[in-house]
Amino acid sequence: MTGSPARVTGPVSGGKYGWPFGASMLDLSEYGYEEHEYFLEGEATRFRRVPDTPWEPDGHWQAEAVDRAPFKTRFIVYRPRDAARFNGTVVVTWNNVTAGHDLFGAGSPELFDAGFALACLTTQKVGIDGLPPIHQGLAGWDAERYGSLSITSDDYAYDVFTQAALAVGPNRERSEVDPMGGLEVLRVVAQGASQSAGRLATYINAIQPLARACDGFILTIYFGRGSPLDVGETVVNINAPVTTPEQGRDLQNQLKGENRLRDDLGTPIFVVNSELEAMACHNVRQADTDTFRYWECAGTSHGSQQGRAIRQRLIDRDHVIARPAQPNINAIPMAPLFDIAFQHMHRWLVEGTPPPIQPKIEFAGDPASVVRDEHGIAKGGIRLPQADVPLAQNSAIPLSEDIFALLGGSSRPFAADQVIEMYGDVEQFIKRFEAAAQRAVDASVLPAGHVADLVQEARARWPD
Question: What is the C-alpha to C-alpha distance for residues 350 and 320, in angstroms, rounded to an integer?
Answer without folding.
Answer: 40
